[in-house]
């Protein structure tokens, strides 16, 4: 199941400002000069319990004025192919432009939900000027201000109606769903081809009831698992292959449809900023993760090479560094099955349910010996803990004065949970609730 929302539109209409508002990622660089590459272009958001991924396509438009048009067309086309809903942003202060009309022509042909979002309506006078955008011939038109938030609630209410709720049951066998994720050329298809090329395995394609999920059942060598989106990985679509935006969209989709992700990196290049973004995205989606350092055959090794390599990666993954790191080669087939074994272990960790009595027996004494520090004379007191009945490990700590419990203490509790139970490779959530 996946929910991807793409934001398209001309440069400078306010896409990344709106993106930041949705994802809460203020660290993205917003620059009034069009065409500046931005740091962060994708994140996750939720509205009234519906979770979705958001992509700011503008973050991928790099180039001069004359290449913009072509680039924007590409992003719009890709969004149409890959996203579940599209936000088409326009700027009320500039009015309707020729480029807006061209984009709307592309968008009118799709059956996917498209929302025209007239931005920069910071006050009523501006809001009344949004009428001209109905001429674009698209059904849903919303007027908002990304800067002060006006109108965004109404927009999101309608948007989430078009998205899937978390509890949609799919017609897919209940097996570990494993996705291979990573930047282009790290060796994802090579790995899949090694696995699926083995003739002793039984391989069946399963299309999920939701239109986007494609799984391959890999059975043999003691495994019975579903590989996510393998059709796309085996036969590459040459047209889009080189476009970063495309691979990001594919990654998000695969992450959302999986239980465990094999995050593959290129041993010759090391753990790069883009690998980090994908890692954080897996974490935010609460999926299991194994870091796979591929092309290990190309690295010159001495005794401690892999130890250093591993330490360096782990340092970067902090605070979520309780993650297996494995060194592979899709060419020599080194540790390919080891990788799958790790993925299946992690799948099991993700399903771990700890009995409430055991949880309280173990955690309450630890909390007593190191209680949350008092703030402004208030002593937050944790009385009771229970694991929430959801797909990933999440724990509710029932307490008083929850607003006075600091992040540092939350990390302490998470560390204690990790020390006492096996959550390797799994992001866990700690919530505080007042009785
Ligand atoms: P993008 O190129 O479409 O991603 O546009 P940006 O998000 O970078 O915004 C372009 C400029 O418009 C920036 O200077 C923003 O501060 C400004 N802007 C974005 N949203 C609003 C809004 O709702 N009201 C006003 N007044 N300015 C906005
Ligand atoms: P993808 O874009 O992530 O699917 O990457 P590919 O599987 O297409 O691999 C990109 C290139 O790297 C191809 O030329 C592969 O033959 C090569 N490659 C993949 N895995 C390995 C490996 O483990 N060792 C070496 N030496 N080359 C590899």
Please provide a written account of the structure.
This protein is of the alpha/beta class and 435 residues long. It has a seven-stranded mixed beta sheet, with helices on both faces. The longest helix is centred in the N-terminal third of the chain and has 18 residues. The chain is globular and about 65 Å long.
Cofactors, ions and other ligands in the entry: guanosine-5'-diphosphate
The computed structural class is alpha/beta
Envelope shape: globular
Order of helices and strands: EHEEHEHEHEHEHEEEHHEHEHEHHEEHE
Helix content: 25-40%
Instruction: Count all strands and give the number.
Output: 16
Largest sheet: 7 strands, mixed
Please report the number of helical segments: 13
Mean pLDDT: 85
Range of strand content: 15-25%
Computed over alpha carbons, the radius of gyration is 23 Å
Low-confidence stretches: 26-39, 208-212
Strand order of the largest sheet: 8-9-10-7-11-12-13
Q: Tell me the span between the first and last alpha carbons.
A: 33 Å
What labels would you give this structure?
435 residues, 7-stranded mixed beta sheet, 6-stranded mixed beta sheet, binds guanosine-5'-diphosphate
Q: How are the elements arranged and paired?
A:
Layout lengths: L3 E5 L6 H9 L18 E6 L2 E7 L8 H18 L2 E7 L6 H11 L5 E6 L4 H4 L12 E4 L8 H10 L15 E5 L6 H10 L4 E6 L6 E7 L2 E6 L1 H5 L9 H13 L3 E7 L6 H12 L3 E7 L10 H13 L7 E3 L8 H16 L4 H14 L12 E6 L6 E6 L7 H14 L8 E6 L1
Helix pairs in contact: 2-3, 12-13
The structure holds guanosine-5'-diphosphate (GDP) (2 copies).
